[in-house]
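quick one before i forget lol
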Amino acid sequence: MTQQETLRVACMGAGYFSQFHYGSWARMDRVQLVGSCNRDIDKAEATGLPAYDDLSKMIAEQSPDLLDVILPPVAHAEAIRTALALGIKWIICQKPFCVDLAEARDITAEAELAGATIVVHENFRFQPWYRTIKDVLDRGDLGDLHQVTFRMRPGDGQGPRAYLDRQPYFQQMERFLVHETAVHWVDTFRYLLGNPLSVYADLRQMNPDIAGEDAGLILFEHENGVRAIFDGNRHLDHEADNLRRTMGEALIEGTKGSIELKGDGSVWLRAFGAMESRCILPADTWDGFGGDCVHALQSHVVAGILDGTPLENEAADYLAVETIEEAIYSSAATGTKVIL
């Protein structure tokens, strides 16, 4: 495609999180939204787009260039296979990508065989604070990096009604904290540090009213002795007016200084030995999700398709995240470090 062309986009799914997808697409000059499909057609109709409850019919009638799959993992494979069979060559698929690593590998291979590209909608690496942190690390401003720590504290996991108002299927996920949520930081740590060499995990279930784990510690070993720690607990909160903006706080430490990510989305740099920090990214003012990271990711994909710029998180690359996820669950089950 050329830079002047418009991308016809259709969306599969109209649940809670889809609002951020639809809102983002609607803001793009080079995108034309052509349809919404959902098994509850009333939700598809609520988007104001041509509405369908049959994906094949939507694709046949609207001829989209790109299908945006905004569904839970259990529905990914069927939707993608339908799109591939009907000739769709560009697909964005929400994370977690498919139900497990085996299915993700199968779907990735089928897409490659069909000459199609899948980009996994892993949006946290596109949050402005992580882009800022990546720039600092790439410049070497922290010296020799020693440790990265993220404390996830969204405060939404207590009691029998946890998650029911927003994403009720969370309660039935037998693999929850890691498969649904911590994969964000598996990918973010990869973005900042490269692939880990090993993982060690201690996972636990705090809320008896859900099926899966909702708290845990994961230790990642990276090149050059760097360690990354994910410390997640969905029962606890952190200091923020919007607990879902950053979902927690981060500390990145090196021999020449450290970076702190606060719950308001601001990023602070402190030189080694200094008593004060300076703000290198002001507090976030976006009133939607995660520093407008959905829009950043979708804009990235549009530029990749229309302008030919390199794409991040294509499915074949994202399989590394799923491989690491499997290693995390294996470590938790065996109580041992797993070498990758």
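fyi The chain has ten helices and 15 strands.
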